[in-house]
TrEMBL record:
One of its GO terms (molecular function) is monooxygenase activity. Keywords: FAD, Flavoprotein, Monooxygenase, Oxidoreductase. This is Baeyer-Villiger monooxygenase. The lineage of its organism: Bacteria, Bacillati, Actinomycetota, Actinomycetes, Kitasatosporales. Belongs to the FAD-binding monooxygenase family. InterPro entries: FAD-bind_Monooxygenase_sf, FAD/NAD-bd_sf, Flavin_mOase-like. Residues 498-511 have a biased composition (Low complexity). It comes from the Bacteria. PANTHER family: FAD_NAD(P)-BINDING DOMAIN-CONTAINING PROTEIN-RELATED, L-ORNITHINE N(5)-MONOOXYGENASE-RELATED. It holds the Pfam family FMO-like. Residues 492-511 are annotated as: Disordered.
Amino acid sequence: MAEHEHVRVAVIGSGFGGLGAAVRLRREGITDFVVLERAGSVGGTWRDNSYPGCACDVPSHLYSFSFAPNPDWPRTFSGQEHIRAYLEHVADTFGLRPQIRLNHEVVMMRWDGDALRWEIETAQGRLSADVVVSATGPLSDPKTPDIPGLDGFPGKVFHSARWDHDYDLRGKRVAMIGTGASAIQIVPSIQPDVAQLTLFQRTPPWVMPRMDRAITGPERWLHRQLPFTGKARRGLLFGIRELQVTAFTKHPKQLGAIESLAKANMAKAIKDPQLRAKLTPSYRIGCKRILLSSSYYPALAQRNVEVVASGLKEVRGSTVVAADGTEAEVDAIVFGTGFHVTDMPIAERVVGADGITLAEAWKDGMESLRGATAAGFPNWMTIIGPNTGLGNSSMILMIESQLNYLADYMRQLRVLGGRAALGARASAVHAWNRRVQDRMKRTVWNTGGCDSWYLDANGRNTTIWPGTPSEFRRATRAVNLAEYEVVRARAEQETAGDRAGTATGAAEAVA
């Protein structure tokens, strides 16, 4: 990479968000862009998470781009290897490889207000860009708790998102820390092989059966020969989840019937009343993400598994100690403790127009305009930003909505002409977030009685979207220039009035 290469757009990350942004930019006729990826291959979280049993909890035909359908999904809920292969296929099909820069981790990016561009420092050198699209994703940086004595543990320690495939767990005594979406896939995958598995559970999850099956050859043939059948399948999956949203967002009490089904599912596999009591949540189902597994409970009922209803407190040599005093001798510790979601590390590497980092701007909680742009950070956009997460459907739906917003953002910059940038107005950001938080008050995520990773350090839900994916798509269909300040290079400020007026008229015609 040249010392001072300049591009129109720099996309950070090559997961679903980054590759989707690259495809959408191409469709808008923008080819002067690069995709900066810190790792040696594309795939994002589906590259990093390769632990045993890793799979998606959203049906395959819904967990893929609408513009890149895959008629050959092998299972209704696909595994990590199939999703990663799909992302590699997207990169190849749309000819993105020449613009993907692997091993180019972004170290820092700073807004240059005079030149109206982002100065970006990567592990391989520097470049600049008019627009930055941050698609690093919320599930990219593992979160490992600070446990006293962990540094002195003589055995093996790793996080589920950094699985050590060179370490053989067979015959080992293993401590699994956490009971989230990763843990319930790992536990049944390693339980038959380990000598002893001790599961440290701070809060039990609600678990429903995973209705997974192989997609038959005739089904795949039909989807290849008649593409509309694949679209119909996707549409049905979308519609079912769209109808379910109101129970999560407006009428949490309706979820009581689902709780009864979840308890019945547990009772089939867990006959020990004491173990069943440990595994029964005390909060409303849906407050934390509902987990899908048909093998988790049967694994917990096996003789070589012990469930400790407490979190890990400390490590003393090879002894792990729970907060309730329970002790266990182990050879390996596996952390399934999630990710930095409400405190994304990338925010510490983004310095905006006021000379402060995004992390400093968000010190009281993440806030963005329509999940995309932040006040004080012109021409910077995030994919899967604050309050864009979903509790029961596919994040690809939300990503595609944000790609629509990105496309119109670039159109508005083109209409403005010359050297121009768009900066989200603080008043617009605050107004949008007030509406979001007002809607959040009645949702199961705020009223369900749990402490989830959806909440930030202040107890505010800055992660989940309190509506349907369709509502979000309507809200991000077009950029409203009234929510933005038009920033001009000094040499062009004299003529900015006429151009801004023309752009505003165009935006009003689209809205």
